[in-house]
Amino acid sequence: MRFVPVKSPEQQAALSMHRTRDLLVKQRTQLINMIRGLLAEFGIDIPKGLERALLVARRIVDGEAPDVPIEAAKIVGTLSQQALEIHVRIRQIDRDLLVWLRSNDVARRLTTIPGIGPVGATALAASVTDPHQFRSGRQFAAWLGLTPLQKSSGGRERLGRITKMGDKYLRKLLIVGMTSLVRRAKYHPNTVDPRLADLLARKPVRVATVAMANKTARTIWAIMARGDTYRTGHQPALAA
Question: Binning pLDDT at 50, 70 and 90, where does residue 116 land?
Answer without folding.
Answer: very high
